[in-house]
Structure formats: structure tokens, C-alpha cells
Hints:
Blueprint: H1 15-22, E1 34-36, E2 41-43, H2 45-49, E3 58-60, H3 61-67, H4 75-130, H5 138-201, H6 206-226, E4 236-243, E5 255-260, E6 266-270, E7 275-279, E8 285-290, E9 295-302, E10 305-311, E11 316-324, E12 327-335, E13 342-346, E14 349-353, E15 357-362, E16 367-373, E17 384-386, E18 392-396, E19 401-405, E20 410-414, E21 422-427, E22 433-437, E23 442-446, E24 453-459, E25 470-476, E26 481-486, E27 491-497
NHL repeats: 256-282
Organism: Dreissena polymorpha (Zebra mussel)
Protein name: B box-type domain-containing protein
Amino acid sequence: MTCGREDIKKWPVSKAVEDFLRKCEVHEDETLTQFCHDHSQLCCSACVGTIHSQCSKVTQISELTNSQPTGLEGMSVELETVLGEIKTLQISQKASIQSLQKTYKEHSAVMIEQMRGNLNTYIDECDNSSVGTSGGNEQYLKEEMCKSVLSIVNEFDNITTKELNEMKAEVISIKGSVTSSIHKCTSVHNDLSQFHEIVQKIGDHKQLCLIASIKCKHIIQQALTLLGKSGKAFNVQSNTKHNVRIPSDKDVCIMRGICVLPDGQVLIVDSKNQKVKLLNQQYQVVSHWDVNARPVDICLITPSEVAVAVNTSKIHEVQFITVNHGKLVPGRKFQLQHECRGIGHHQGDLFVTSGQELYKYSLNGKLICSLYQDRSANYTVYKCDVSPTGDRLYITSYYQLRTLARDGTLLATCTDPALGGPSGLHVTPAGQVLVCGDWPYTVQQVGWEGESKLATLATRRTREDGVRYPRSVCYSSTTSSIIVGQWLDDNIRVFRVE
Ligand SMILES: [Zn+2]
Ligand SMILES: [Zn+2]
């Protein structure tokens, strides 16, 4: 049979493409011949004998092609869209690294300039006071000068150098995680490009079309997870409660903020008892730090450091805390010129809410800009969090969840009746948006677009399950659990999810 240029779809598929598509990714020497409906996965005979031995429905690929369309139509366009988004993400991640380094350099330059200023001021003072002094005092003056210069330099060493080192460690850690994410993007980008090319070449070969389309869907799903658009709904398997009250607590706990370290340790902000508590992987309090003011929210900066928002009538500040061998060690802090209610972090950018505004700060505490404001009521900008790629910001309003673009433009509002008074908010590493609130008591998962509810994870407490006045929520990848902190309750709720 001969095919002309116009019959490109009927051209035979090259052996290389066919071998590539049919190869099992787990068992290199095996060919994919079957499909497991339970896992929606292609299998070779070795897969069927091992990973899918207990699965209820495994069929031959040849049977499938007779009964259903291959689903390859439109795949090319979808691949192109996702390819473009991954490219954009890589560009923004590279920009993040540069801006982080710039922040650090600027901050150290400012600090050194400040010390130079202090020295100059002191020398000028000496110069003025030495005018009119009679001879014989020069030696004394020199000694005094040496002492004071030394004390200025020492202060720089003890305070500023420590802060700069702290910040340097953050920059290195964040840079490392961004770099590893860039590598993941590169690898997914390569896979997507490869399939984009192959999809054009398969032609009418039904089985190969089906295999390619299933493989494409898997890669696109991986890409969407990286893009924070996974959209996978959580399913609650079981729930437990854990008491986090400690002997020095004078009151019942109010847990306004929770965050989980990558190793599974949990940090809780107990605003009533004015403490930050560290829980081990079994949710037992192993350490705490007395804030001596009201801590209101917490966010992760690096795998071993968090930032805590502190707010009383007179104090508005962000306090950094390092977790070191099961102990909480306070680091630097910076003051805010406004109230603070919530805090979020993304690759060196800190987002702080005041109740009516959302502000962006750099790691050194420099206010970059105000991103959003709504002065129509008191708690229109309450808690905030950021999508994994940084291109969407979520804020809870007293009756809504709002989604903003990177520049603060309002993209979406969610006014689901089940989300009456959203108070706690958390975005998972795959971009799943968790919201908890009061009217009614509930923990919900909202789609990444921030428009509609995806799943109800917990509702009003009946006997032992459920929640009452949930105030904070966080997902732990290590334990596949959603942790919920409540108002006037000594227990955290832990929901195991799939
Ligand atoms: Zn296999
Ligand atoms: Zn299976």
C-alpha cells in the first residue's frame, strides 16, 4: 500500500515509537498488554502478577479498543496548554531565585551602611567634644574611641551578623527547594514535549492511540500537580483527637494557626495561652515557646523554620522561630505598621493580612506593596495562603473565600452557603484549597480556581467525630492527614485522608 502526503494519518508508525509506547515503565523488558480499571493503569504481564494481582478488573488492551474511543482527540491541544504553563512556571521560579538573592544582598548592604553610619556619628561626636580640650588628653581620647568603636563592631557581630546568617540559611534552603522544583518541571516538560511529538505521528493505529492517550493523561496529571492544579478531592478515612494542653496553660486552647514541617512535626499557635507548641509525629507536645503576646497565625519558611504573626493592641510583628532537635529557638523579628491577622509564605515573599488589607513583604521585613484591600467591613481580609506556584493568593473574608492573582487582581469569589464564616485556610503542595469555618462548623475543600466546593471533609461535631468552631487547618503529606485546630478546645482533630 502506498500513501500520499495527504494520507499522513495512514503512514505506518515507526518501530521506535511503537516500542517506546508499549514498554512497561516498571518492567523494562516487558510490553504493555493489559489495563487495570481499578487503578486506571496500563500493565504488562509482570504488573498483573504483582502490583495488580488483587485488582478486580483487568482487561486486554485489544478488548478496550473495540469498545471505547481512544481519547487521543484534543490531546495535542491539551499538551500544548500544559507545556506553556510549565514553561511560565520555570521562568517565574528562576525570577524568584534572583529576587531572593537580591533581597539578601540589599539587606546586608543596608546593615553595613548602618554600622558605618554609627561609627561616623560617634567619631563626629568625639571630634566635637575634643575641641577646646587642652593637651595631655589625646591618649585618653584614643582609648575611649577604641572602646566605643569596638562596642559598635561587637554589636554588629552579635546582632546583625546573626540575623544575616539566619537569612542566608533561609535563602540557601528556599533556593534549594525552588531548584529542585525547576528540575521536576524540566523533566515533566521533556515528557510532555515527547508525547506532543508522538501524538502527531501515531495515525490511525487504535491500540497505540489508546496507550498514548492513557500515558498522556498520566503525564498531564503530574504536570497539573506541579502547577498546583491537581483538583484531586480528599476522602476522609478516619479521625482522631489529640490533647495538646500543657501544665502551664492557664486557659482552654484557642488554636488560630497550624503548620506542618516536612518531617511530620506540627506547630500550633495557641493564642489564648500565648504559646507556640511543637508536636511530634504522634501529636504530643514536645516543646513550647512563650510568646508573651498574642500569636495569631503561623506559616512555613523552610523545612525547619516558621514565621509567627503576633498581634495585640500595641504589638504587631512577625517573629521567626527555628525548630532545632525538638526545641523551638526564637530568631529575628520585624515590626509591622498595621494590625496582623494572617500570614503566608511563598519562595521568599511573605504575605500578611491586616483584617482589611493584604500586604507583601520580603524576608528582611521590607514592605513591598499592598496587594488588595476591602474596607467594607472589619474582617474582609482575614487569613491568607498561596498556591504552590505563587500565581494565586487565597484570602478568607467574613462571608467568602476570595482568589487573587499574583498582582492582587480579584479572580474569583466563593460564596457557598457551606462556607459561611471561613476563618482558617490552607493550600496543600498539590494546590488543594482547604477552608474551615463557623456557619455551619465545617472543613471544606474548594477547587483550585476558588470558585466551588469539591468536598466536605468534616461537619458539625456529633459525639466524637466532626468539628466545633474550627479555627485553623493544615495538611500533612507525611501522614496524609488534615489537622484542625479549634476555638476553646484543648484537642486537635486529625482526619486521615486518601
Ligand atoms: Zn510491568
Ligand atoms: Zn490494579
